[in-house]
């Protein structure tokens, strides 16, 4: 328990108390307050807060202002004369109240950071095997084997969380500092070695950064100047010329700094120069205790064509046994349940909650948390201690679960929309038409909905399946006329829901009708076999009478067949 003024922050039960009485506070504002309380007295930048609380997810900075307003209201704080949260314009926030542990000892900033790191490390669930694999790769460094590791998986699967847990354990056991660089969308094509520069800056700015600076100064002076640029605020005119930054010099310097792991996140956004560096580090023959870890979202079709340079690099290194891949799969149901419990701060969950969230999220950790937050925002999950009803510090269901195609969590909707909007208009139309079926969709139905040639449409679906992480080719169906048509599945129903909801109602209805009519053509004389599907499409289009006619016709055919038997 951490105390400040009349407030207590119960991190174990995820609860804020005023004079011992629980206060209703949603999970994300609580997480923001916890981060500030556990880092008292120092500036917390906007970027640091966003990175800490929303890893691997783009969130509008305006969200922080909203949460700060909520916190000031709960704490009775005045932004003009703050007692708790001080705003530093255009920079971030500082928690100015003195924080003590329950035993009365003062909590300094360093203690807060350690507590936060411990909490973050504990937050990772269901990744014990993958974490052990990262540790095993680290142990191999003792024999002088350089290790390059790709941590792969879809957006929100927990790549950053896994690497965070690994780094925290590494730093706590060896006091080693890591150099960590973030690849940023849109920057890769404009600035060479962007994540490399960030990683070098971190190494040079670390408590033992002087040794790193000396190595760079001796072996790669141009890179040292580049690495200091961000930290010293130097002008771009001081940036060393590209021809001065020799790749071999940097490789040699990094090998000498081998006890400091290099981490490059979101490699699918990386520039070619950074990929060349990773390739060179993996292929060099000299022994070195060098550990490079890169996170990567395969088939990120938003920015990559089928000719993906990161995929080519990874597969080439795998073939030559020069790297290891750790693919992250969706969480098992038990792990997802544990994640829900940690998000809510209680072990016993309301009946049916784990099943509903798991079905909706399909084991993606980001989707799990976003779904829980959505249920809280919709008033389905309620903190019972807030109104005095029921036991304190518990969450319970106060409303039925929403339909699976009801309003989506806003955070996930924005994330999916960003991915979709990077595709061409034709590709967006194909995916929208695909969403009219179900999680699984055949190419012929997409062609019918769009009024397009089936062969061309199937080729378009194949291209999307090769490029996108959320569309997978699943097999072939044989149609009644003897032709074959491939079918595909959405990896997550949430993608299908976003695509379905983003279509105008009239366009959606027209496409549903086309699919229903095409079903009738394909199964002419045997409509009863697909009557339910036809009726579903007619009903979705608002053609209730046509849906009823189809079902009545199917019923008559069934009676005739039953009489013939």
Descriptive tags:
565 residues; alpha+beta; Arc Repressor Mutant, subunit A; Rossmann fold; 3 domains; five-stranded antiparallel sheet; 23 helices; 18 strands; globular
Query: Main sheet, how many strands, which sense, barrel?
Result: 5 strands, antiparallel
- As an assembly, this protein is single chain
Assigned CATH superfamily of the largest domain? P-loop containing nucleotide triphosphate hydrolases
Name the structural class: alpha+beta
User: What is the radius of gyration computed over CA atoms, rounded to a whole number of angstroms?
Assistant: 28 Å
Helix content: 40-55%
Major sheet: arrangement of strands: 4-3-2-1-8
Number of domains: 3
Strand residue percentage = 5-15%
In DSSP terms (H or I, runs of 4 or more residues), the helix count works out at 23
Q: State the end-to-end CA separation.
A: 75 Å
What's the total number of strands? 18
Outline the low-pLDDT stretches: 103-122, 230-238, 301-306
Mean pLDDT, to the nearest integer, reads: 81
- What is the CATH fold-level name of the largest domain? Rossmann fold
What's the CATH architecture of the largest domain?
A: 3-Layer(aba) Sandwich
The best one-word shape is globular
Q: What is the CATH class of the largest domain?
A: Alpha Beta
Can you describe this structure?
- With 565 residues, the chain is an alpha+beta fold.
- The protein folds into three domains: 1-123, Winged helix-like DNA-binding domain superfamily/Winged helix DNA-binding domain (Arc Repressor Mutant, subunit A, Orthogonal Bundle), CATH 1.10.10.10; 127-327, 3-Layer(aba) Sandwich (Rossmann fold), CATH 3.40.50; 410-564, Arc Repressor Mutant, subunit A.
- Helix content is 50%, strand content 13%.
- It is built from 23 helices and 18 strands.
- The strands form five sheets. Strands 4-3-2-1-8 form a five-stranded antiparallel β-sheet, with helices on one face.
- Helix 11 runs parallel beside helix 12, helix 16 (410-421) packs across helix 20 and helix 18 crosses helix 19 (454-467).
- It is globular, with a radius of gyration of 28 Å.
- The protein starts with a strand and ends with a helix.
- The model is unreliable at 103-122, 230-238 and 301-306 (pLDDT under 50).
């Amino acid at each position: 328990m951490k105390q400040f003024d009349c407030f207590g922050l119960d991190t174990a039960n995820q609860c804020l108390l005023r004079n011992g009485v629980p206060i209703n506070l949603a999970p994300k504002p609580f997480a923001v307050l916890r981060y500030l309380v556990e880092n008292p007295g120092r500036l917390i930048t906007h970027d640091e807060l966003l990175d800490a609380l929303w890893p691997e997810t783009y969130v509008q900075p305006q969200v922080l202002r909203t949460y700060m307003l909520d916190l000031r209201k709960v704490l009775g704080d005045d932004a003009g004369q703050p007692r708790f949260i001080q705003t530093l314009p255009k920079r971030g926030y500082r928690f100015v109240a003195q924080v003590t542990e329950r035993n009365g000892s003062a909590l300094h900033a360093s203690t807060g950071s350690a507590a936060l790191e411990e909490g973050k490390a504990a937050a990772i669930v269901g990744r014990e095997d993958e974490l052990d694999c990262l540790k095993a790769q680290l142990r191999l460094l003792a024999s002088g084997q350089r290790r390059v590791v790709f941590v792969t998986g879809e957006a929100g699967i927990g790549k950053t969380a896994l690497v965070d847990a690994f780094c925290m354990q590494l730093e706590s056991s060896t006091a080693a500092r890591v150099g960590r660089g973030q690849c940023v969308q849109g920057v890769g094509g404009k600035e060479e070695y962007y994540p490399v520069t960030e990683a070098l800056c971190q190494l040079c700015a670390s408590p033992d950064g002087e040794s790193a600076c000396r190595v760079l100064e001796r072996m790669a002076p141009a890179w040292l100047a580049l690495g200091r640029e961000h930290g010293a605020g130097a002008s771009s005119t001081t940036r060393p010329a590209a021809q001065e930054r020799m790749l071999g010099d940097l490789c040699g310097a990094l090998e000498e700094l081998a006890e400091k792991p290099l981490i490059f996140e979101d490699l699918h956004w990386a520039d070619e120069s950074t990929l060349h560096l990773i390739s060179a580090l993996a292929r060099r023959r000299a022994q070195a205790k060098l550990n490079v870890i890169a996170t990567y979202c395969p088939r990120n079709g938003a920015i990559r064509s089928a000719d993906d340079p990161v995929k080519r690099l990874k597969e080439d290194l795998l073939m030559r046994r020069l790297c290891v891949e750790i693919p992250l799969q969706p969480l098992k149901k038990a792990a997802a349940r544990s994640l829900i419990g940690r998000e809510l701060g209680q072990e016993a969950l309301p009946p049916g909650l784990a099943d509903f969230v798991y079905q909706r999220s399909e084991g993606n950790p980001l989707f799990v948390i976003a779904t829980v937050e959505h249920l809280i925002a919709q008033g389905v999950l309620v903190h019972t201690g807030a109104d005095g009803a029921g036991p304190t510090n518990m969450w319970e269901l106060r409303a039925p679960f929403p339909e699976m195609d009801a309003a989506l969590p806003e955070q996930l909707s924005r994330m999916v929309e960003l991915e979709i909007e990077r595709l061409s208009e034709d590709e967006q139309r194909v995916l929208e038409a695909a969403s009219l079926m179900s999680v699984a969709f055949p190419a012929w139905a997409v062609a019918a909905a769009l009024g397009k040639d089936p062969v061309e449409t199937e080729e378009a679906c194949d291209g999307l399946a090769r490029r996108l992480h959320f569309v997978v080719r699943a097999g072939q169906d044989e149609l009644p006329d003897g032709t074959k048509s491939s079918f595909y599945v959405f990896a997550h129903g949430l993608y299908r829901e976003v695509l379905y909801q983003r279509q105008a109602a009239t366009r959606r209805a027209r496409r549903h009708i086309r699919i229903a009519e095409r079903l009738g053509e394909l199964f002419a004389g045997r409509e009863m076999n697909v009557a339910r599907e036809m009726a579903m499409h007619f009903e979705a289009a608002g053609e209730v009478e046509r849906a009823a006619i189809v079902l009545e016709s199917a019923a008559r055919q069934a009676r005739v067949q039953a009489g013939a038997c």
